[in-house]
Amino acid sequence: MKKTALVILAAGIGSRFGGGIKQLEPVGPNGEIIMDYSIYDALEAGFNKVVFIIRKDLEKDFREIIGNRIEKITEVAYAFQELDDLPEGFSLPEGRTKPWGTGQALLSCRGILKEPFAVINADDYYGKEGFVKIHDYLITEREETKGVLDICMAAFILGNTLSDNGGVTRGVCITDEEGHLTGINETRNIVKTAEGAAVDTNGVLTPLDINSMVSMNMWGLTPEFIEVLHEGFPLFLKNIKPDDQKTEYLLPTIVDQLIQKKLANVTVLHSRDNWFGVTYREDKASVMDAFKKLIAEGVYQEKLFS
CA spacing 20 to 30 A to 209: which of 24, 38, 158, 274? Predict the structure, then answer.
């Protein structure tokens, strides 16, 4: 069986969740967290390694709440995203407290990942279809073009990814006739409306097609992609202004840049599953109800890994 890994981005601060560690909030009937269901679906799809990207200060909680359990059923590794983990010649700007973003998070896996892998957020539930399609893509041999990354992403229907409790940020996908990604429009504060969806700009609503395909940060990548991140991070830091405390090194932006430079071929894999996640503290009750429904429908057993 070909080795494939699931990489979980779990170093986020969780500020919108009221300061708690939202990735570790129980949502299942036996204390399961969202990551449990993602790992279950990934292993079922054929992935056989899990890499948690966390902060050092979360390690004890992660190991106790999920890591030690998952180690009993598959290979587990840890990577650590830290603010001061910067290339030689760079130092942490004074006052910077915001993480450097998903690109730097994934860069922390350099040396750990030797196999193709999927990347997901810790606090998002993706359903089963995306894992199956990305795994199948990663293990399929294809003719490669030298110097061009052959990667993929799962895209979700916008209407399946909205929160009842506030605006969300989604990468609206632009594709060509062959289903390849040609661009991502990172769109902030998308809200539910009576008509479907809209972008809320200080109370002004701009309608958005609810059937648009959006990125949920679910990628199928290769170890070569991490080398691209390694090469690009110093350039990113060099272009940061001294007083810039917020700009991040983000996967959608990096992928978009590679596409525009014709250095990546990104196949868009459509998922019809409903997303849900704990973006806001108010989301937790609806997420718990959603898992109860999935268990009642037989999608999951009540004791997930029994």
Answer: 38
